[in-house]
Predict the structure of ABC transporter domain-containing protein.
Amino acid sequence: MEDDDHLPTLTVAQTVRFALSLKTPKKRIPGVSPKEFQEQVLDMLLSMLNIKHTANTIVGNAFMRGVSGGERKRVSIAEMFCSGAALCSWDNSTRGLDASTALDYAKSLRLLTDIMQQTTFVSLYQAGEGIYQQFDKVLVLNEGHVVYFGPATEARQYMVGLGYKDLPRQTSADYLTGCTDTNERQFADGKDAESVPSTPERMEEAYRQSDIYRRMALEKDEYRQLMSADEKHREEFRQAVHDQKHAGVRRKSPYTVPFISQVWAITKRQTILKFQDKFGVYTGYGTSIVIALIVGSVYFRLPESASGAFTRGGLLFLGLLFNALTSFSELPGQMMGRPILYRQVGYRFYRPAAFAVAAVAADVPFNASNIFIFSIVLYFMGGLYSSAGAFFMFYLFVFTTFMVMAGFFRSLGVATKDYNVAARLASVLISLMVTYTGYMIPVFAMKRWLFWIFYLNPLSYGYEAIFANEFSRINLTCDSAYIIPRNIPTAGITGFPDTVGPNQLCGLTSAQAGQAVISGTQYMNAAFEYYKSHIWRNYGILLGFFVFFMVLQMLFIELLQQGQQHFSIVVFKKEDKELKKLNERLSERKEAFRAGKLDQDLSGLKMKPQPFTWEHLNYTVPVKGGQKQLLNDVFGYVKPGTLTALMGASGAGKTTLLDVLADRKSIGVVSGDILMNGKRIDRDFQRGCGYAEQLDVHEWTATVREALRFSAYLRQPQEVPVSEKNDYVEDIIELLELQDLADGMIGFPGFGLSVEARKRVTIGVELAAKPELLLFLDEPTSGLDGQSAYNIVRFLRKLTAAGQKILCTIHQPNALLFQSFDRLLLLQRGGECVYFGDIGQDSNVLIDYLERNGAKVPHDANPAEFMLEAIGAGSRRRIGGDWGEKWRNSPEFGDVKEEIRKLKEEALANPEEQTGKRREYATSFLFQFKTVLERTNSALWRNADYQWTRLFAHIAIAMVVGLTFLRLDDSLQSLQYRVFAVFFATILPALVLAQIEPQYIMSRMTFNREASSKMYSSTIFAITQMLAEMPYSVGCAVAFFLLLYYMVGFPTESSRAGYFFAMILITEVYAVTLGQALAALSPSIIVAALFNPFLLVLFSVFCGVTAPYANLPYFWRSWMYWLDPFTWLVKGLVTTGLHGVPVVCKSTEFLLFPPPSGQTCGQYANGFATAVGGYINNPNATDECQYCQYSVGDSFFASLNMDFSQRGESAGVFIAFLVFNVIVLLVAARFLKWSKR
């Protein structure tokens, strides 16, 4: 393993204790309980690895502060130790550690190997001699050929014996790898490539003929014979393994504890994770409570009357749907942490199925309590039937439906490769589930080719149950507004009774003439075909769904194991003529360059010969309970043409010092003087500096060449010709040995370039800028092999020869690499300087200082490693006392302060000539706009999954709606369905927000890195992010409009269709700008996602569809209705889709009532029907009147406070909301950086 990936919110002790709980043997020392055994082993492990002091510190990760990198690696060792594995492999696992910590790490591996009698494989780059000496054997590969495998102590002499020149100052590891590099190796005197095995094949042949090979083969054969002959030991081993297993574990099973114990251990861990994620828990409860309050206030105290029947159903629908769709959050949660899951499964801690069961079990208490609080608020504010039995029945079904849907989304998550694939499937399935719940369309009215979806839909069973639970207990009285016919004084219609008489009807499905009170049972039977007798049947079906999805999830996670394999695949851009020509040139020069026969021409570099100094530098940050000082009175300088190394223990403050000096800190207090040429740094300082940061943050869709060119275009002056910038980029590609990857997509961990290649790109991006003031590099050689690291430092030396000033942190330098630096600034923990000065030839100046102060340097020691041990950087005690105090009292410190004084005086005596106005950015606004927009367009185009998921969701929803409401006729029911079809347009922003926000925030991470170098402004970033989305917004709008509009059968006049399309397009753009504005206001993807349910519920509830304008409480109707963007969207679409549409009631849709004796239906009710926009179908009848509620679509939407003549106003106000989003986006992007450093 290479990456130290752990659950970041668990403490070190919790992480290791969990591993131990699953590997505690059944057979232990008598009298020692499992818990005592675990605590004893935990204490022993943490003490042995020297991380006992971190036991109660969270592990953390790249985004969450926890233990240091070296300590996190030792947590990985402890976890692997718990597995009891006989064979352990570690890939480049000292990357990023200082030399002393890396040595401690190697010693920890040595210790565990000896104690546990394990076999340990380790691949390392730039291994120091101390690390190398920890190993028994070494394996050297050359292009896949084994050129040496044998004792580590004999490897160097073996290569010398072949005819390679011994280089005593090289570490053994670097010497061995150097012998396989045609450009690095040197032959002994009188030897050459012909007389010495130098090709991989000849080196392998020579090894196979060597005495060491024969010894290794003999050793292997003897071991095999011993193992095959020693049956007793094998049987003892089998019995020992068997004795470790607990009851219930099969003899051949690789697990130590039974399945139920695995589930229990993981459940406890997941519960701890929940409790420690206080932000997630609080926001979950907070979101539920606030939404319940909002929805409850909209449907406040619904009357048990005809007017409350539809809205009561709507309240029940929202109560079920909100919680069911909240379970969608299980989908990304199921996919995160896959590397940890499969590593622990690989250690045979537990079965994947045990994790699936435990994850559900751990969530039950939190989800049950969350939904309980939500249900109490919603249920009693909404005025649903007030009894304990009714409430708990409602709660039972809402919670069970949630659990079923959570199981559904978890199953989808474990069955799919990545989030985009799962989101595409989810968008279709959610649309089908919502449409076919039975609320919008009763099952008997569904199209025959789609009604089966109702019976496969868990939501439909939950909704029928809570609907029947409510309506079977209530009676609905007829409101005066529902009496047909009735008095309408404003229209001169009078003379009808004010209560339902024998010649009147309540306008509610199932009501009979003269019936003033309709039972809820009668209503639901007729309107929805729902039955009270189905309640417990439905609960059984829901339990069946839950079990089905649980079993499905367990099978999928066991059999598919999606995301387990990691293939680092590099995708290359297709070559055009220009790229082909450039790549041919790179290929021709590659070998010559690596051999040192070719060099870059740096004569064109223009460096400012200005000294950079800092004095009394202190830095404090706010922490819980006060302030913490990270830098403590640091002095130093960098002269033109010098290369300064910044070293220290892990966590000593090296990166912090670089950040402060580069003016990159955004939090905390910096005090002291940072001067360039004797003056305080100004607004163009960051632009004139390069800073290759420790984390490799890039636009992942860009190729290596594109990333370097982007930096050159925007950071070199605009006056420099593009051709010259391009030529310089080619030189950088050669220098960093990226010739073969020049057109490879950078990607991200697990896809694209390797860790080492991405580190080179990070350096290249800064070098391409030609920084004229100063170059900062944070660990430029970490993760690189010895030769690559040497090439980097060799180029840095060339830059200093051209006048560049360079300050860089460096870890684990070998003696040769260390010699390449002019000066050293050494920090100890606490950010305290313990040495700043020259290194000297063969490190003689540094060695002299150390020895004068009590630290005798062994003659064969690497000074870079020894000095870290001396100041206590590793686990051992420091040598010679307090080095910080020694430095402050040393004559060298006095010399540093005097040199800084001289440098400042000389700089002020020779002031720089001002050449024109100082600019914050190297290029103009228009040039930035063109260059950044070009890259953003390219990034979105290459991120095919992102755009395809968005388009697919639009097409899927439009198809679902189109097929569901296919070619609607002129019936009364179809009128209502047209409104529901329109309402689906309000779902589009939900889809867009879910994709836009992560995309924007991920892009902002790249922008923050680039903006710190003054490449381009926040305004350019925000505008280009928005404009790049527009073509895709148009495409999605066209697809959605064509499918939905013409399949449903809306009016075909061009003016109506054009307006409808325009509103859909505005909706798309509105959703994009809203998502980006919310993302700009949010510090993280998680926080941005918290806005979505609030806004979408607010917009959906107040727009006048689920709760009509007349039914909204006055408080909300007076302001929130008008401030809801969806109000204007729905108004525009509904009036356009329904205006002038004739309504012809079917025979089953007429409301029937008898006229008084001696009157025809027309005489009795025609005036009323005309006044309310309906019509009497049989005006001459005398026995039974057929009344249709609407004669034209306009009559229907007039009751919803909509008017066709106000379409223009609706579009204008909606556009105004869009403009508001753009303003918020630009302002937030300008003032909210969300980059805390």
The first strand starts at residue 87 and ends at 91. The chain is about 55% helix and 10% strand. Residues 259-478+516-559 form one domain.
